[in-house]
Amino acid sequence: MTNILDIKGRVAMVTGAGQGVGRRVALHLAENGAGAVVINDFRLERAQAVAAEVEAAGAKALAVSGDVSDLEVVRAGVEQAIGEFGQIDILVNNAGNAGPAPTSEMTRPFWEQTPEEWQGYLGTNLYGVLNNTHSVLPSMIKNKYGRIVTVISDAGRFGEVDRECYSAAKAGAAGFTRSVAMSSGRYNITANCISLAATHTPRTAHQLDDEATLAKVMKRYAIRRPGQPEDAANMILFLASDAASWVTGQTIPVNGGYSFAL
């Protein structure tokens, strides 16, 4: 039987892939036929550890370090990847949260923040998506093939208390992705988002491993469990495969029924 999720030797790049959702996405791609996976993380040692797992899963791997909010750093990583593997077919814009240097001030009420405190969220969640997409599109257009999947959050669809800049950045990334889908579809490139809600990762474990907190949070979910990295990775694999070749410009919630979309 043909595996419609087999990505057939494609070269993928996953940002923020040193742990959590990004790590699982990289492994999903490797386990489903990827020829090579490029692992980006701002901590090189984390990227290298995941690259070793990817290789054990049967794909080639390259670890690249760098802050996705820095266009020149992103370009250098993409050039290194293309130099190593010849092209990039799949881009997963997964890097998120507040970047490599979050501060406690970033969680204060918006009206008490300074513009400098907005930059971690905007740089990682919006400019990071722009930077990576801008850097890989020429290769995709040349090869007339591409799959771009960007991870946003239901904060960007419905808002979230005290996370105005994060919500704005995620909503902006979704709007940007829709425009990329419109402009690049003629080159056989698709661009989609998945929108996550509470997902168990190293960053959220301190909350979701607490039974009282988990019970309170899960009251808002139709499916009364937190998401796992595999839940996100399953949808990303689908969107990266030829099974989704006629799906583009969409934001697909993977959120356990925290919110619904028409």
* pLDDT averaged residue by residue: 93
- Broad structural category: alpha/beta
Can you give the helix content as a percent range?
Answer: 40-55%
| Spatial ordering of strands, largest sheet | 3-2-1-4-5-6-7
Number of strands: 7
Listing every helix as H and every strand as E from the N terminus to the C terminus, the arrangement reads EHEHEHEHEHHEHHHE
Radius of gyration: 17 Å
Biggest sheet character: 7 strands, parallel
Percent of residues in β-strands: 15-25%
What is the end-to-end distance?
33 Å
What gross morphology would you assign?
globular
Number of helical regions: 9
Q: Uncertain spans, ≥5 residues at pLDDT below 50?
A: none
How is this structure best described in words?
With about 260 residues, the chain is an alpha/beta fold. The protein has nine helices and seven strands. The chain has helices spanning about 20-30, 45-55, 70-85, 115-145, 155-160, 165-185, 205-210, 210-220, 230-240; strands spanning about 10-15, 35-40, 60-65, 90-95, 145-155, 190-195, 250-255. α1 packs across α9 (about 230-240). The mean pLDDT is about 95.
Question: Would you kindly provide a brief summary of this structure?
Answer:
The chain is of the alpha/beta class and 262 residues long. The chain contains nine helices and seven strands; from the N terminus they run E-H-E-H-E-H-E-H-E-H-H-E-H-H-H-E. The model has no long low-confidence stretch (mean pLDDT 93).
